[in-house]
Amino acid sequence: MDNELYEEEGVPSGLITGIHLNVSTQEDIENISVKQIDAVTEVTDPKLGLPNPSFQCSTCGAEKLKCCEGHFGDIKFPCTILHPYYLSEVTQILNKICPGCKSIRQNLRAKGAGSVIGHRKLKGCKYCIGSSINYPRMKFKVSTRELFKRSAIIAEANGILPADYWDFIPKDAQQDESCMKPNKRVLSHAQVHYLLKDVDTKFIEKIVPKTNSLSMGSFLVTPNCHRVTEVMHSFSNGQRLMFDERTRAYRKLVDFKGVANELGSRVLDCLKISKLNSEKPSKDFISAQQKNIKDDPSKTSGLRWIKDVVLGKRSDHCFRTVVVGDPNIKLSEIGIPCQIAERLQISENLNRWNIEKLDASCNLRLMVKGEMHVRRKGSLVWVRQTDELQMGDTIYRPLSDGDIVLINRPPSIHQHSLIALSVKILPITSVVSINPLCCSPFRGDFDGDCLHGYIPQSNDARVELRELVALDKQLINGQSGRNLLSLSQDSLTAAHLIMEDGTLLNLLEMQQLEMFCWDVLPSPAVIKAPSLNSHAWTGKQVFSMLLPSDFDYDFASDGVYIKNGELLSSEGSSWLRDTGGNLFQSLVNHFQGQVLDFLFAAQEVLCEWLSMRGLSVSLADLYLASDSGSRNNLMEEILCGLQEAEQACIFKQLLVDNCQDFLMGCAEENRSPLTFDAEYFCHEKQKSAALSQVVHDAFKHIFRDIQSLAHKYAGKDNSLLTMLKAGSKGNLQKLVQHSMCLGLQHSLIPLSFRIPNQLSCAAWNNQKACSLIQKVEGTYECVESYIPSAVVKSSFLTGLNPLECFVHSVTSRDSSFSGNADLPGTLTRKLMFLMRDLYTAYDGTVRNAYGNQLVQFSYDIDMDKSDSTSTSHAKSTTACDGIGGQPVGSLSACALSEAAYSALDQPVSLLETSPLLNLKNILECGSKKSSAKQTLSLFLSKKLGRRRHGFEYGALEVKNHLVGLTFSDIVSTVMIIFSSQSNSQKRFSPWVTHFHICKEIVRKRRLKVHSVVDSLYARCNSARPELKIVLRSLLITSKGCSAAQTCNGDDDTFCITVTMPENSKNSSEQLDIARDLVIPFLLGTVVKGFLEVKKVDILWNDHPRESKKIHGSSGELYLRVSMSGKTGRRRLWSMLMDNCLQIMDLIDWSRSHPDNVHDYCIAYGIDAGWKYFLNNLETAANDIGKDILPQHLILVADCLSATGEFVGLNAKGIAQQKGHTSVSSPFVQACFSSPGACFIKAAKGGVVDELHGSVEALAWGNTPPSGTGRQFDILYSKEGLNLSKPLNPYDLLGSQISSSRENAFETSKAWNNTLDKCDVTSIGLEKSESVFKSVIRKYLTINDIQKWTQTLKRILRKYDINESLTEGDKSILKMALHFHPHKVDKMGSGVQDIKVGQHPKHENARCFMLVRIDRTEEDFSYHKCVLGALEIVAPERAKSYRSKWMNHLPE
């Protein structure tokens, strides 16, 4: 096994600079193939590589799969066929040429002037210039999947065709009669080749660059290792080969006999079965390849194979295991079990600085194995003695204390999920340990989370880890710019408690804590405390002992003031949490090198004090109240609060527009709406999302008062509230649900049932019974879906009844979480694909690795660039400042990705706006379709604030002006009445149409009768020409109508009459025109507002915290106008402005804008659109609750608008942005979506991918072009500089210690000449003995020796006399022989074998026999080996062992 690990393969090395994608031609197939497949059994022939039935590759002779990459074969076809990938291009060519004379149709149309036409007519064929009736133009297309599975070409023509129409197609003996129909021909492959034979080659090359790829005469067979799997048989020791679908498809091609179309169908089946495509290919495979590439991961194919095989890199120098917490480990360390550390190897080059350390490791390795491998000048070398080592050798040793490892916790959604930690070997098993304060950057905890570790194998990698990725280099959060680490969990709770007023410590406690502090014990703050009866120290003094002496800090909101390292005052503990301006952020800015030490010391002190004080959680903490009486008072106040909340919800529900009719009905009945049963309002709110939203907001406002009761009734010593106040664990809402009541529970998604107001089984049964009765009586109201919600008055402490438990389960967040769980991952994938190759150049600009495209002129934050960027972000020193080559694009993508993952904690609900979906919509930049529904925001003028309720009246006025009102909305009845028109000078039809309109509706809508009539006349004048004949002569009047009074019985209506001119003497015909044409046309007339305006909502916009102080209000009203129409995108905004001319003064046009960023850019320009997008992006991040540095948001905005217009974060937008760089990158596109389609499209175009990006570099073994891998130039002056001859650095290091090495070897010669022949080596007598003994004492214990003794005894007794030992037992004996006092004499010329023999002096005594290289034998006793080990490890035990066994020991 070891030999396999160190086996060296002769793989040639080189630098891949690009890949050229092409469709293989016949010449390529012949060059690649090593065997022509003529039989079905040869599909898995041994010449195609391993695995195969012969267990050996016949081509290269390899016997192991890893030594043979496989070889290609080929299958010869009986006839030449069209390549299935080019069928669409072939049909395109055929449709552009004349099938008779092979002329290009574009040329025929271009030469259509004057005498040229006549000349062309003389030379043209009947298909070019013949009559379109006799010889109509035919159309070529690819066959359907039912016919040859889309692998053939069909020619079709319409009409009655002449007998010689299809004469241009030659006869084919293999063609079936079913393929020859009067108007359709299914062409064979030979017939298509004939049609293409005389076509201009240059014309074909415009569509197909490589014309020799159009045909296929043979098919490549992939190596066996791609198709055949070798598995062990489950019932025998033999081998069994498993074949995949592609192998079976190959067998169908071998020795094929049939028509060419059927052969093409089978070839297409082989092309479908690929690891780049799905296992079950779609039926429309070729058409799917030609369509636009989609970005939906569920629809893409082959991405898993690309990720696992092409992008994934296997490493033997890594580990994965569960992580646990250990507060005794420093923050920059990771505890690794000794068993795992022994198996992980790290490479190190031998030099004078590490010779002693590596000598000890090599001695131990040689003692156990007898030999080891080192790498010397690129080759593996066997070493059996340490004096064979040379300076510069690469030695592989186990992990030890102080080594650096890279730790990662997937998923890597932010830059701090990769941290380099120092190794600390621990005597534990199976799990690794980290300090609990390091959970924050890893976004993990200790409930079974796993960590991945990677061992760097080069000096460059180790230096990069220490200088760039170590924890002390990542103290600043790259997403928010604040500190990465702070106190948490128990230490934060202890900090909150120790700094409370009244916390005193006595001398013993202070002396205990002083062990962990930096500073000496200060003077006591209290000379004599009555409670302690002695002097005492405050908790603030304890905290001051941890701070640097010259540290100053103040946090005004909590009254925190620190001067010269002394905490003078503080209130609360928010300044210790992960918030802006906290204590640790100030420490990072002023004492960056001491922050980790401070945190570690603070954790030790606080946890020690908490363990002395004690903190436990019990049911008494959930009970909140101190006694039963207080508990009863608490529950009574909760019930009163819930009743008040219910009344407030009903009151708010009545104020909604939908309840206007209900209130008017109550007024008519002289009945108060509040007297209605609460069940009625509960039923109504569950039918409407608007009502549910109002009730939810009202209840949430009252429920805050109920939550405050927890602080009122809970005691000061309540552990749960203590942790809540400290900010270490939990939240108040969870505590209220457990101890007081669950409150309002509402479903996040629509359901098919509703919930009764009273949550009891009786109420549920009554609701069901009433529904059944209503269904029987026919009065049941059918509602498609409800938004169930109810108030659960019980708590988890008191218990839930069955219905309450059911309500809580169906309204939990899990009901809709799964629908959007993959959205953050999708956004992360898109952001990384778009931005991963953006880096900072050495000139300060931000560029794209593809084409060196300029994205930003400077990465520095320009606060004047956008008004939206928050000034609260102080510019912090990060790893990106002033350093070229930084992957700033990846950092920005990670910052937004982490915010997206954090938004999963806020589930998508019908009643609340989802921050996650809002972020997604902003990044996708909205729709660019002109016919799509668009929204526009109108902000009210500040002048309206001068009047009382001016904004409210102004919003209603704007809404009333814009909302479209049609004539049908105000008409109550329509009648056609016959009345004679004999007195009129102009002849009119006797059929008069009466439109009866309610005066109350007209008054509410603020309409005038003459304006309605004018609108009807305008509608008639704008009718289509064919309708104007009837509509232009209509007579529209408004007058009293006796029919209206007769129908309605009152004077509340007026009438508008419409009379038509008498164009026909047929009376019934005029009646039909009035009924079928005039009435529907006029009812669709817009009498007020605008037809394009579909909806106007009056909404509330919250002001940011900073602007609240300036404006003096929390927000403002604004209107969201929804418009749609077939007009252009520019027209909608212009149309809205034109429509608002009459109310221009009510609207603040400087702030009003289209909501779609594309429309915004069209209306105001790209710069204004950029600021608008950036403001929306920052608002979305704030809604999620994440602070993101402005430079990340600015870079995202610049990246999406680099083309001069915003592109959406989708497949189409990303393709547009990539295309703007004018660099082809099919490989990285294939890694994003649809790899099969991407590679086929690139191969057909003969694209060359120059591998510019980081993904390509990692996949093809190159250094990523970012960070330290970015290329740079070193410029120097040659004047006065003489370059010396290059030297080997390891020779240079070795020359500095040559004298010590020579002295050591001179001493070793005096030791014994025979020592050089044994496996134990020495660099000097004194040094060898000391190093050997120090290694033994470090790695060997008395328990190990006892187990070792039992093992040796068992080995001696399990073999027969003269039976040789196995390799495993032999290695144990070789290790034991190192402790024998006469080991050199015993080994002699060298050990060849070890066996069990009969002792020559002691009868019936067994012993081990050494068989030397010179064939001589020597006996030795394992007891003397054990005695030698005891004298080194435990000399006091050696004496007793000697007295027990010395008299019986053989030599």
From TrEMBL:
Keywords: DNA-directed RNA polymerase, Metal-binding, Nucleotidyltransferase, Transcription, Transferase, Zinc. One of its GO terms (molecular function) is DNA binding. It catalyses: RNA(n) + a ribonucleoside 5'-triphosphate = RNA(n+1) + diphosphate. Residues 212-499 form the RNA polymerase N-terminal domain. It is an enzyme of class 2 (transferase). GO terms for biological process: DNA-templated transcription. CDD domains: RNAP_IV_RPD1_N. SMART domains: RPOLA_N. GO terms for cellular component: RNA polymerase IV complex. Pfam families: DUF3223, RNA_pol_Rpb1_2, RNA_pol_Rpb1_3, RNA_pol_Rpb1_4, RNA_pol_Rpb1_5. This is DNA-directed RNA polymerase. It comes from Prunus persica. Its EC number is 2.7.7.6.
